[in-house]
Structure formats: structure tokens, C-alpha cells
Amino acid sequence: MIVWLNGTHGAGKTTTGALVQQLIPGSRVFDAEKVGETLMDITPGLPATDNFQHWAPWRPLVVETARRVLDYTGGTLVMPMTVLVEQYWNEIKEGFAKQAIPVRHFVLHADQDTLRNRIMGDALLGPSTFRLKYLDPYAEAAQTWLHAEAEVIDTTNLTPRETALEVVEAL
């Protein structure tokens, strides 16, 4: 099974993912961003983009890598990864369906002010204009398709542990 934790930067995906992994025996965290980083290392480079998700190979590689890891290890993969383009999510979701891999899709949500404050006050990563630029696309995706496509957990007033417990209870 895949537990996909979606949402924009500052929603708590990475922290929650690590805590969910601790609460589900036999689970592992798989960061699909590493697939994008691998693609970024290809030289000469792929076409210029501001987001590796725009490269067509990224989506099927995420599915195939997750499938192979599950085939090898079994259990559950917890995947904290923002996907805000509906077409991209559909490709990933359909890829998992073709492999008969069940997916529970959660969106970790917080209001814009909370997200902005978390990003600006991030002690580990520091303030980030890159992360801030995804707030508006997240809000648009949330309104148009994303929240209808997933189980939404509002993290605005939750600790990461409380969020992780909500995910595990929903499972």
C-alpha cells in the first residue's frame, strides 16, 4: 500500500511522514523527490524547467520505483510529496492502479497565513521564496480538484504527532 501525503510546503508532509512510518509496522518512507533529483543529475541536462515534475519521465519512474520497492520489501510506503497538477496526479494514480497497488491519498492542509508563517520561520530550511511560490498554486488546486481527490486533514492547529495519528486512524 501507498500512503501519499500531499499538500504544499509548510503543511507538514515530511515531519508527518516520518511519524506515520513510526506508527505503522513494516512501513518505510519513500521520498519521490529523490527521483527528481536523479533526473536533475542527468548531463547534458533535460529541458529547462522550474520543477522536475514537469519532466515526463518523473511520474512513471516514481510509480515504477515504488512498485519495485514494495515488491522487494512488502509493507507500506509512506510518500510525502506535493503534486499540484491534476494531470500529474492522475498519471501517478493510474500507474499505481495498473500495478494493483492501493493508494490512500491524504492532503495535509493549512490556511495560507499558517503556511506562510511556517515557511518563513522554518529553522531547518530557513525562509524560502521557492517554497512560498507554491502557496497560490496549492490554493488553486485545493479549490479545483485536490481536496475532492483526497482525504483532507487540516494541520493548522495540529501538532505533527496529532496529524500522524489522524492519518493512521483513517487507515
Please give a structural write-up.
This protein is α/β, with parallel strands linked by helices and 171 residues long. The protein has a single domain (2-170), classed as P-loop containing nucleotide triphosphate hydrolases (Rossmann fold), CATH 3.40.50.300. It is built from eight helices and five strands. It has helices at 13-23, 33-40, 58-73, 86-98, 112-120, 129-132, 135-146, 160-170, and strands at 2-6, 27-29, 76-80, 103-109, 151-154. The protein has a five-stranded parallel sheet, sandwiched between helices. The mean pLDDT is 96. InterPro entries: P-loop_NTPase. This is AAA domain.
CATH architecture: 3-Layer(aba) Sandwich
The major β-sheet equals: 5 strands, parallel
Task: Give the SSE order as H and E letters.
Answer: EHEHHEHEHHHEH
Q: Judging from the principal axes of the Cα atoms, what is the shape? A: globular
Strand tally: 5
Helix content: 40-55%
InterPro entries: P-loop_NTPase (IPR027417)
Protein name: AAA domain
Reconstruct the topology from this structure.
Layout (H helix, E strand, L loop, with lengths): L1 E5 L6 H11 L3 E3 L3 H8 L17 H16 L2 E5 L5 H13 L4 E7 L2 H9 L8 H4 L2 H12 L4 E4 L5 H11 L1
Parallel strand pairs: 1-3, 1-4, 2-3, 4-5
Protein traits:
5 strands, AAA domain, alpha/beta, 5-stranded parallel β-sheet, P-loop_NTPase, Rossmann fold
Summarize the structure.
Helices cover 49% and strands 14% of the residues. It has 171 residues and is of the alpha/beta class.
